[in-house]
Amino acid sequence: MGRKEVFMGKAKFGIFGDGKEVAQLAMAKVFREGDIRSGYYRDQTFMFAIGELTLQQYFAQLYAHTDIEADPATAGRMMNGHYSTRSIDEQGKWKDLTKIKNSTTDISPTAGQMPRLVGLAYASKLYKHNPDLHYLTQFSNQGNEVAFGTIGNASTSEGMFFESVNAAGVLQIPMFISIWDDEYGISVPAEYQTTKGDISKILAGFQRTEEEAGFEIFRVNGWDYAGLCEVYVQAARVCRDEHVPVLVHVLEMTQPQGHSTSGSHERYKSKERLAWEHEHDCIKKMRQWMLENGFATAEELEAIEVKSKETVRIAKNTAWIAFMESMRADYESALHLLETAANESALYKTEITNIRELLVRTINPIRADAVVAVKKALRILRTESVQVKAQLQTWVKNAIAFNFQNYSSHLYSESAESALHVKAVKAVYKEDSPLLDGREVLKACFDDMLARDPRVFAIGEDVGKIGDVNQAFAGLQDKYGELRVTDTGIREVTIIGQGIGAALRGLRPIAEIQYLDYLIYALITLSDDLATLQYRTRGGQKAPVIIRTRGHRLEGVWHSGSPMSMILGSMRGIYVLVPRNMTQAAGFYNTMLQSDDAALIIECLNGYRLKEKLPANIGEFCVPLGIPEILREGTDVTIVTYGSMCRIVMEAAQQLERIGIYCEVIDVQTLLPFDIHHSIVQSVKRTSRVVFTDEDVPGGSTAFMMQKVLEEQDAYRWLDTKPRTIPAKEHRPAYATDGDYFSKPNTEDIFDVVYEMMHESDPAQFPAIY
Ligand SMILES: Cc1ncc(C[n+]2csc(CCOP(=O)(O)OP(=O)(O)O)c2C)c(N)n1
User: What are the residue boundaries of the Transketolase-like pyrimidine-binding domain, all occurrences included (predicted)?
Assistant: First the structure.
């Protein structure tokens, strides 16, 4: 029926779970309240069976109904087959997750559900073994919850799958993977996907033994209901009671409708395979099994089938009516206003009547149709004065605002705990405040965080025993234990997944990526999963992970990158904080821990050994987001920068001052959000000249800052000369001090550009130098 809806044009795309039903029933039987799923688009039967999806909701999602009540999983934002439960309420507060059968929110990229699954299971380990977390009874019953993952056989070819399986084996966590194996990935058969064409066969080395920890691996056929039930009961017992990972490879599954509505499987499956699939359809097989064992008669089953179809038909129709109804008021008011406009218009009656007629004749009109029609009418009426014009204009404004809520809300947290609501608390210094290495200031901050909040834990490569490569956690593992400050393998994407999963279950991870250059390895999960989380659920889930990394200047191609525009372009939904020193960084950590947003905090790689004064209130002071700081006042040129560049720009500003040029240096401090009160334009009003500089490529985040200031803040109106950007070179930075000097903006570059701007204004006072 879903497929038909697509072919009739009532829905845009359909992907369905046929052929995978019976195994999902078995999985549902062992799935308890408090458990949590991280799966993919085939799991409709499972979601029905655990009672977290109704038929009507299923169709509402297919149609893209934007009400949370109609499609609680995604509010019409994701295509059908993307399942989810809501773990936070309308105020953004956590629900009692131990009372819900939970599902995290599916994403479309194959295997993208796997890194998060590691974190969901890891949370159970922390809840079980850290008694200080036992008070968090709304999240866990002392770690008794299992994280269930599902994945298609072909998607196990992805690197993320293998990284996640390995991580779970190392961590020994209650992670229960089901692989739905129908021997294809769209049109590509198993022999092109998997060595030996058999995923559990090649994962056999992960099988635990008496001597060695690992996975418990099971194989079972997808049409064998009794066998599936047995395996799932046994596997769930091992997973839950022994708190170890298990993997169930469900073979001999089918895909009777083909991959999706985008094409038919007759194009790539042989006649023999199609016949085999027909014979091995799991519902057909289950039916035979029920008849053979006398659990039901053929008549009873037929009656169930007839009744089921009717139930589905009613749910489908109800969902469709509700979907159309949700748009009716706008549509009808548009028609009414257009009719009035046609009547009032002396000049354009025919044109407006035609626009209205087109809208009337539109089959299954959507919101955009009405907006297009009203806007067209307003364009035509631009030169004619009619009474209804004001109403039409208001109608457009309201429609845009309403649809902003429908389609663009909740990119970040909109709760009272949003990072934007955390108030600034100034760092306090005493006369005897010690001057320390930057890394020691950070360490004091982390020490205080770990002491005051048991939910906080830090993970990453070299974070545990040596306290990270720059030792901001030095000694903290000894003090707080291995569960709080923890080494991980070299596996960036699952470090992030481990953070996301744990944060989805109420914990407060600091997930560390050793160098900013290696964030690229984790970018998929940051971009696809974490950045979209609040958005794709319309505020139904949150994962306040703090991602810690260090970047910008140091040495060489892979230890001094600053790929900020890559981050800005791919991670909207995660705040991006770029502190210039470790004190500002500490203030950001304190801010983020108070908030329910996710953030990336990029420390300056070359700042750990620079001396900074330790604030007396290291655990309390907060640096607010989106508030630039003027590091130096000046009247001639505004220089906008952040991070390690602040010191270089300050040095250049000092040199410029000596020859009578006064620069105002602004540290933006956070790129996302960017200068929320539009303070930079105030500086440009004073100086009439502006420069944007950082260590990204030309046209990268300097261009981003320029767009924000010139376009959004209207600073172009105050400029006397062309705005400048001073980025790094297009290539990665070369090694050693000269490599750095000639790859990244240096003091002389800043000096020369600023001088040139002054020369343009007053060549007599500032004659050409070179
Ligand atoms: C990263 C990524 N690459 C490609 C796709 C397109 N795609 C969607 S589903 C799919 C096949 C997945 O097959 P399998 O994992 O066996 O699951 P099945 O659909 O057969 O249940 C592909 C290639 C995608 N969604 N994500």
Answer: 436-610
Two structure tokens written together for 195: 């060595």
Q: Is 559 a catalytic residue?
A: yes
Question: Which of ligand 1's atoms lies nearest the C-alpha of 180?
Answer: 21
What percent of the chain shows pLDDT beyond 70? 100
Q: What is the 3-state secondary structure (H, E, C) of 412-469?
A: CCCCCCCHHHCCCECCCCCCCCCEEEHHHHHHHHHHHHHHHCCCEEEEECCCCCCCCC
Length of the chain as a residue count: 770
Other CB atoms within 10 Å distance of the CB of residue 358: 14
Helices (H), 539-638: 564-570, 582-594
**Cα Rg for the chain, rounded, in angstroms?**
30
pLDDT tens digit sequence for 499-553: 999 999 999 999 999 999 999 999 999 999 999 999 999 999 999 999 999 999 8
> How many C-beta atoms lie closer than 10 Å to residue 741's C-beta?
15
Residue nearest to atom 11 of ligand 1 (CA): 185
Q: Name the closest-CA residue to atom 12, ligand 1.
A: 185
Q: Is the pLDDT of residue 497 over 90?
A: yes
**741 CB-near residues (< 8 Å, 6+ apart):** none
Closest CA to 644 of 717, 736, 716, 551: 551
Residue 465 confidence (pLDDT)? 98
Question: Residue 237 corresponds to which amino acid?
Answer: R
Spatial separation of the C-alpha atoms in residues 623 and 626, rounded to whole Å: 9
| Distance of alpha carbon 18 from alpha carbon 254, whole angstroms | 8
Closest listed residue to residue 695, CA positions, set 576, 601, 554: 554
Mean residue pLDDT of the chain comes to 97
Q: At what angle do helices 298-344 and 55-63 cross, to 10 degrees?
A: 40
Point out the ligand 1 atom lying closest to the alpha carbon of residue 42.
Answer: 21
Report d(CA 644, CA 694) in Å as an integer.
Answer: 8
Taking only the tens place, the pLDDT of each residue in 142-187 is 999 999 999 999 999 999 999 999 999 999 999 999 999 999 999 9
Q: What is the pLDDT of residues 90-112, one digit of tens each?
A: 999 999 999 999 999 999 999 99
- Residue at 65: amino acid letter: H
CA 555 vs CA 726, 745, 749: distances in Å:
20, 14, 19
Return the H-helix or E-strand segment holding 511. strand 508-513
CA distances from 678 to 43, 667, 673, 705 (A): 47, 13, 11, 12
Three-point CA angle 64, 506, 95, nearest 5°: 55
Distance 602 CA to ligand 1 centre (A): 34
- pLDDT tens for 560-579 read 999 999 999 999 999 999 99
CA 530 to ligand 1 centroid distance, Å: 20
CB within 8 Å of 401: residues ≥ 6 apart:
none
CA distance readout (Å), 122 to 175, 215, 243, 532 = 8, 15, 10, 22
**pTM attached to this predicted model:** 0.97
Residues 320-356: tens digit of each pLDDT = 999 999 999 999 999 999 999 999 999 999 999 999 9
Distance from the CA of 15 to the center of ligand 1, in angstroms?
A: 11
What was the pLDDT predicted at 314? 98
For residue 262, what pLDDT band results from cuts at 50, 70 and 90?
confident
Q: Give the C-alpha separation, 601 to 670, whole Å.
A: 9
Q: How is residue 601 written in tokens?
A: 């905090």
Distance 484 CA to ligand 1 centre (A): 36
Residue 555 has pLDDT above 90, yes or no: no
In three-state secondary structure terms, 550 is strand
CA atoms within 13 A on the CB side of 326: 22
Above 90 in pLDDT, residue 554?
Answer: no
Tell me which of 46, 155, 254, 260 to substitute to probe ligand 1's pocket, judged by most ligand atoms within 8 Å of the beta carbon: 155
Amino acid at 187: S
* 701 vs 187: CA distance, rounded Å: 41
